Amino acid sequence: MSVELPLWRALTGYRILTLVYALCLVGLSYQKYEHPLGAAAYMGALTVWMVLTWRRTTSAERCTRHFLLADLGFAVGGILLTPLVDTHARIMDGAPTLPSIWTAGAVLGFAIKGGWRWAAVASSAVAVANLVERQELARDTVHNVVLVWVASVAIGYVVEVARASERTLARALQIEAATRERERLARDIHDSVLQVLAMVQRRGAAIGGEAAELGRMAGEQEVALRTLVAGGLVSPPRAAAATVPHPAGEGAADDAVAAAPAAPAAPVPEPAGDGPCDVRALLAPFAGAGVTFSEPGAPVELPAAAAAELAAAVSAALDNVRVHAGDGARAWILVEDEPRAVIVTVRDDGPGIPEGRLADAEREGRLGVALSIRGRLRDLGGAAEWVSVPGQGTEVELTVPKGTAPEGGRRGKARA
User: Quick check: 179 pLDDT over 70?
Assistant: First the structure.
């Protein structure tokens, strides 16, 4: 909602209330005017003007510059008309002008529409009219003039600051939306294209001949694409494209996270429909000879989109086990249905991850942990936590609050 809208509504209410107040003042002092019919004629014209134009101050689009000038003209005209319809004695005694405090509404319109500069010009015009009407620098006149000038300029400045803040917020929201969409695309690329390129690289190096050249080119494209989706912050060395992962065993843990991905895992099953989905049905296909799957006896339900993202994160965690823990490593998947969240734990008996290696891998453009796992859980309002001790395996705990789903549908832009 625009920060200006409440100000326009308040201005509309102010103008209506001050018109009623000005009519009451003129009505109570009607017999004291030197020319009461002139005062009544002006107040009648002002009332008609308000009836015809009260909606003009309900929004910035309706409140045009021409309207503001005409409104200010009614206010200044009423001030200058006061000496012609009222007695000199009453004016010297401090009697109010015909429009009275309604005049401030015209000045505030300039402040909200154009900021403090417009407010300064409009309030200066009103100040000159008041001094002409009083014909002297009386204390109460100067007090009222300064009060209107300061108040209108201050409100105009606040409006300008609010507009700048609103533009900054809108820009920040656009950047956040673009960043989240980029992260979503990067996750999809990591889970498909990058893994296929890595597989071609390794297979080509193993076959040799022309296939080795094809593998080398695939490795170069993998590095270039990985750098692109990582935001161009890192330029991995060219030689990294030809690196073949070390076999699991002594010394393999040091390169665990930075090693090339394994062949793509089996596709994550898609939930049927958009209603609640049993997470167990999406995770059960991951069970196999090296993976043990443990589940509750009752359905574990999440929104379909959230369940699909959780299954994709589990798939990425198992890919890391296959690559970094070795072919002989075992993995365990445990599903827990808590009152407020679903917790999935993926544990392996591999060599573990050295401290600080996850952060180093993210800086080097390795996106498996940063986007495929942590990014998905963050977008669902959840979290991913790693517990790893070198030589004792790695445990990944994935937590998804119940009732959450990515915005925009399945695998779409997620809610922060």
Answer: yes
